[in-house]
Each structure stands twice: as C-alpha cells, then as structure tokens.
Specification:
Largest sheet: 6 strands, antiparallel
Oligomer: single chain
Helix content: 40-55%
Shape: rod-shaped
Structural class: alpha+beta
Radius of gyration: 51 Å
Number of helices: 7
Strand content: 15-25%
C-alpha cells in the first residue's frame, strides 16, 4: 500500500525546485567553463611551445646562413657578381693569358704573327748609314732613311727633282719608331735630302729611285714578352751569286739559295727589338769579330 507524502505546510515546493534547478545549472556551467578554460590553456601552451621551437630553429638557420655567407665572402666568391665590365674584361684577359702561358706558341706561329715587323725595316748595303745600322746606332737620319724607303717615290716626282712633304715622311716615321721626329736633312743612297723649313718639305736635286737591297735575312728565333717582341735573324750580303759578311765584306762562299743558318758562324746575327710594333733597338753580333 503506497503512502501519500504530503508536503509540509509552509514550504513552496515549486520555488524549491526552481532554485535547485538553477543551482545545478550554475554548477554545471561553472564546471564546464573551468574545464574549457583548462583545455584552452593547454592548447595555448602547446601552441606556444611549437612557436618557440619553430623560432629557435629559424634563428639557428639564420645564424648558419650568415656564417656560410661570411665564409663565401672571405674567399671573394661574390666578386664575380658585382665587378664592372672593365674589371670583368681584365679577369677574362688574365685567364686567357694564363692559357697562353700554358700552351707555348711554336716558332712557325710566332713567325707568322710577327714576321711582318721586319718588312718595313729596309736598308741597302750602299746606304751611308749601313755601319750605324749594324752597330745598333739608330740615329735620327738612319730612321728617316728607313721611313723614306716605305714611301712610293713615283708620287714625289716634280720636273727633274723630288719633293717630299714633311708630313708624309713624318707619318711613315711615327709608324716605325716611337721617339720624337726631327725635321732635318739626311742622305738617301748618295742623294742629299734637303729640308726646306719655309716650304716644310724635303727637296732633292735629282729624281729619287729605290735601290733593291742585296741583303738577305733569315729569321731564326722570336720571343715575346708583355708588349715587346724580339726577333733574331741571320743576315748576309749576296752579290754576283756569292755570299758575304755584311760588316767586314768578307766572302763566305758561293750562294746557292740555301739556308743562311748553314753559314751563321760567318755571318751577322742581328736582334731586332720591337715595342708595341715599333722598332726600339738593333743589336748585331758579328761572328768573325
């Protein structure tokens, strides 16, 4: 038999229920918020931990990159990216020069490259300056003689004499030599070349004609260093099919158009020194003296 419980007199059951319900809700929400806050703090701690580790790794990597850049800069690795065009050209030329030093040029290659330098250095055995030439005495008159040999004489004729404009001779002179040109008289194979200052020209009393020289030369060695080129030749005089020493005019033997090197101990060994393609010196070694 079920007993019926009656509410005590004076107690508001509905109000009590409502208060209990509110209390329970409040406690649940409070607990939930506390747990949520705990969870958020845990997530933030984990997140901060990851960010810290990431920052440490980044700092380590930056330090490593800076150290590597320092090492590369210490060996001038970055110079090639910042040099100007002129400096770049110098480096290229330096590397090319190194390559040339490694592979020495053959005599034939040097001869082909520099043999032309002697083509305009012409003198006749009958020149008044032959002794100066083979003694290495490059006088102003001798140089003008050599320069005149490179001018077309047909363009100099005027009636029964020759006229050479000073500027024409000077132009040829500075092509061959690097010293200061002097405008004064000299002699060309017994013909006086007189300088007339008022006309700024050279005048002769006869028509100039070129004399084919009988001096034969044979290149035996060539050396190059910086801007200088040294060419060594064996030279002899050929007259009436006979070979002579140029300096002492002594006969060597009959000449059969063979190599002058076969008779080098009887002939003249001449060394020509060029600087930037200009003749600056002649040295002669007379084998008989």
């Amino acid at each position: 038999m079920v007993k019926k419980v009656e509410a005590k007199e004076g107690i508001d059951v509905t109000k009590l229920k409502k208060e209990l319900t509110n209390y329970v809700d409040t406690q649940i929400k409070k607990g939930f918020n506390e747990e949520l806050e705990k969870a958020n703090k845990k997530v933030i701690r984990e997140k901060n931990k990851k960010i810290f580790v990431k920052n440490v790794v980044i700092i380590i990597l930056l330090c490593l990159i800076a150290f590597l850049l320092y090492l590369l800069n210490s060996v001038d690795y970055f110079d090639k990216f910042f040099i100007d065009e002129k400096e770049s050209t110098k480096i290229i030329e330096k590397e090319e020069h190194k390559g040339e030093q490694i592979e020495e040029k053959t005599f034939d290659a040097l001869k082909e490259e520099y043999g032309y330098l002697l083509d305009n250095v012409i003198i006749s055995e009958n020149s008044e300056y032959i002794n100066d030439y083979y003694n290495g005495n490059l006088t102003s008159s001798l140089k003008k003689y050599i320069a005149l040999n490179n001018i077309d004489f047909d363009k100099l004729v005027l009636d029964d004499y020759s006229v050479i404009d000073n500027s024409v001779l000077k132009e040829e002179y500075i092509k061959l030599f690097d010293d200061e040109y002097e405008s004064d008289s000299f002699v060309y194979n017994s013909v006086k070349i007189s300088y007339i200052e008022k006309l700024n020209s050279y005048i002769t009393n006869t028509i100039l004609s070129k004399e084919k020289p009988n001096i034969k030369r044979e290149i035996v060695s060539i050396a190059e260093s910086d801007d200088k080129v040294v060419i060594t030749t064996i030279e002899g005089l050929v007259k009436n099919k006979k070979l002579y020493n140029i300096v002492n005019n002594e006969e060597v033997k009959d000449y059969k158009k063979d190599s002058l090197s076969n008779y080098k101990k009887y002939l003249n060994e001449v060394t020509y020194i060029f600087n930037n393609e200009k003749l600056i010196g002649i040295n002669n070694e007379d084998k008989l003296n």
